[in-house]
Amino acid sequence: MKAIVCKEFSSVEKLSYEEVADPKAGKGQVVVDIKACGVNFPDGLLVQGLYQMKPDFPFIPGSEVAGVIAEVGEGVPHLKVGRRVIALCMLGGYAEKVAVPASHVLPIPDAIPDNEAAALVTAHATAHHALKQRANIQPGETLVVTGAAGGTGLAAVQIGKAMGAKVIAVCSTQEKLEVAKQNGADILINYTKEDLKTALKNVTDGKGADVVYECVGGDTFHACSRSMGWNGRLLVIGFAGGTIPDFPVNLALVKGYSVVGVFWGSFTQHQPKEFQQNMQELIEWYLAGKVKVIVDETLPLVDAKKALNKVMGREVKGKMALKP
């Protein structure tokens, strides 16, 4: 089969498109014929050696796929060949086939297109887990989303609205803010045009935010850390701006809020039952029109480098997908 292979931690440009051996379904696994694969910011970090996980070489990046089951391993009675599914594979998604633990495979209805199904897994599931399990967000609370036009930021806007929050979208351009508005954002802040800390104070009537879904890091994180409300939850999602900030812990003490790490990949490993329940709820919300997957562009698998560069350059509105 064809796949995108990483042979050393380096720039995205060093990835190669080549022939590799087909995977086989081990015990408790299935092999999925991939119809689409989602492209995520952590994929770019991973191949550069900048992510928490450091796989052995060579490896195939790509953590979320949609496709059809081609082979079922021993001990998997509930899944059949020919079943259409989405799967969380952690690695191996940028390929024509992948072997995945059956616990991380979920049947999907035909109403969800392949590229949207693949893109539903990581971004929406991260936002859903963050707001549900980590923040326990409640109807009527104020939710600030930074990077609100990116894949997981846009998902947080949609899911925050579905859970009854008042959503404040924070973006770097008016064009991105319009995308966030179209997906349910109530208040828009362009942090390149106005001071973010002052703007957040004004739009929350001085009370601060109940929940912040923080994807950017750097100065954006610092502004949010000074804009939290009492009993607030500052969710640490990622650092798309490239700078991992230092946090003055006295702020959490004085303002009485929590800083909460969100690592969805570990959640799926530690709490697979809750992961399955979350995904089922997301699919139900999708079918009910409460959430939608915005796919900016779907490119052929051979163009994975182009897709990754677009994601890493924060040029994407929604998600990117690859099609073998």
What does this structure look like?
The chain contains 10 helices and 15 strands. It folds into 2 domains: 2-122 and 271-323, Quinone Oxidoreductase, Chain A, domain 1, CATH 3.90.180.10; 138-262, Rossmann fold. It has 324 residues and is an alpha/beta fold. The strands form 3 sheets. Strands 3, 4, 5, 6, 7, 14 and 15 form a 7-stranded mixed sheet that branches. A 6-stranded parallel sheet has the order 10-9-8-11-12-13, with helices on both faces.
Radius of gyration of CA atoms, rounded to a whole number: 19 Å
Q: What is the CATH homology-level superfamily of the largest domain?
A: Medium-chain alcohol dehydrogenases, catalytic domain
Q: How many β-strand runs? A: 15
Count of domain modules: 2
Oligomer: single chain
User: Do you know the CATH topology of the largest domain?
Assistant: Quinone Oxidoreductase, Chain A, domain 1
Helix content: 25-40%
Domain Enoyl reductase (ER): 10-322
Organism: Aliiglaciecola litoralis
Protein name: NADPH:quinone oxidoreductase family protein
InterPro entries: ADH-like_C, ADH-like_N, ER, GroES-like_sf, NAD(P)-bd_dom_sf, Zn-ADH-like_protein
